[in-house]
Specification:
Length: about 220
C-alpha cells in the first residue's frame, strides 16, 4: 500500500519513452523492451562480434545484446547509462543478458564476471564504471561472481571515436594489467563492456587476463556498433 501511495506521487517512468511503468515493469516498459533491436548473437558461434578477435586473441565466445544505431533507443539508453548517471539501466540490461547467457553454450560456464576497468581518474570524475553496472546484472543472471578489482587500467586512453583500428590498438596497447592473479587463476572469465566497435579495448584487456595460468575468456557487451 505504501509503495502504491508513493508511486502515485512519484510515478516511475520508462527511461526510454517516458511512459509510466506499471506493476511488474522496471526501468523500461515492456513495449520498449520488445522493440529493442536484439542481435541474438549468443546463439551464433560464428557472429560479427567474435570475428573481431579472430587471429588476435583466443576468446572462447563473444556476443552483444543489441544493435547500436544512431538516433534510436539503444543509443539513448547508452548515453544515459554512460553520461547521465542512470546506472539502473546497466544493471537491468545486464540481468536480461545474464538470463539469456545462462542457457547459452559457451557462456553458461562463466565463473567470474570482469568489467573492463576505467582509469581511476575517469571513474572518479564520472562516479562509476558503466561496465561494472552491466557486470553486476550479468553476475546475478549467471549466478557468478563479479570481480572488479583484479584488473586495472594503468593509463587514461584518449577517446576512441574517430580512430582507425590500428590507432585504437595503439591507444590501449599494454594499458591493462592483472593485479590480483590469484583470483583469476584457472577460471572461466566473462569480460564485459558497454559497447564494441573495433574490439581493440576488449582485445587488450583479454590479453592481459589470458596471461594468468589456466584462464579462458569470453566477451559480452550491451551493444555493438
Amino acid at each position: 500500500m505504501l509503495i502504491d501511495f508513493f508511486s502515485l506521487i512519484y510515478p516511475q517512468v520508462c527511461v526510454t519513452c517516458g511512459s509510466d511503468l506499471v506493476q511488474g515493469e522496471s526501468v523500461l516498459c515492456l513495449d520498449c523492451v520488445f522493440h529493442l533491436p536484439q542481435t541474438n548473437y549468443h546463439l551464433q558461434e560464428d557472429n560479427p562480434v567474435i570475428r573481431h578477435f579472430w587471429g588476435r586473441v583466443p576468446v572462447k565466445a563473444a556476443t552483444s545484446m543489441y544493435f547500436f544505431n544512431k538516433g534510436e533507443r539503444v543509443q539513448a539508453l547508452m548515453h544515459k547509462l554512460k553520461y547521465k548517471g542512470a546506472t539502473e539501466i546497466g544493471e537491468f540490461a545486464g540481468r536480461m543478458m545474464g538470463q539469456k547467457l545462462a542457457t547459452a553454450e559457451g557462456y553458461r560456464d562463466s565463473q567470474i564476471i570482469i568489467p573492463v576497468p576505467l582509469h581511476k581518474s575517469k571513474q572518479l570524475k564520472r562516479g562509476y564504471n558503466q561496465s561494472e553496472c552491466l557486470a553486476k546484472g550479468l553476475a546475478h543472471g549467471l549466478k557468478a561472481a563479479m570481480v572488479a578489482d583484479a584488473v586495472v587500467r594503468g593509463t587514461a586512453s584518449d577517446t576512441q571515436t574517430k580512430k582507425t583500428r590500428f590507432l585504437r590498438w595503439q591507444n590501449v596497447d599494454s594499458i591493462f594489467s592483472v593485479v590480483q592473479p590469484q583470483k583469476l587463476e584457472g577460471m572461466n572469465i566473462l569480460l564485459v563492456d558497454d559497447v564494441i566497435t573495433t574490439g581493440s579495448t576488449l582485445e587488450a584487456c583479454a590479453q592481459a587476463i589470458l596471461e594468468v595460468p589456466g584462464t579462458t575468456v569470453r566477451v559480452a557487451t550491451m551493444a555493438c556498433a
